[in-house]
Amino acid sequence: xxxxxxxxxxxxxxxxxxxxxxxxxxxxxxxxxxxxxxxxxxxxxxxxxxxxxxxxxxxxxxxxxxxxxxxxxxxxxxx
Length: 79
Hints:
The chain is mainly alpha-helical. It has one domain. Helix content is 65%, strand content 10%. Strands 1-2 form a two-stranded antiparallel ribbon. A hairpin with a 3-residue loop joins strand 1 (25-28) and strand 2. The radius of gyration is 14 Å and the shape is globular. The mean pLDDT is 91.
């Protein structure tokens, strides 16, 4: 069963992908290159690939929320 929050997040991811240029392609793990329309279809169907895409977006938003993304981009590496 999908909660309202999960459905709202699925819609958010769908609309974020929709805002990409139509000729955009992304590589997802061992799946290979997917066109923007392929990504949209998988998110809409909420199949395994769509769930992976949504989870990647959740990780991105979590990194924004916690500041991890900012630290990775702007703080000097300690390596």
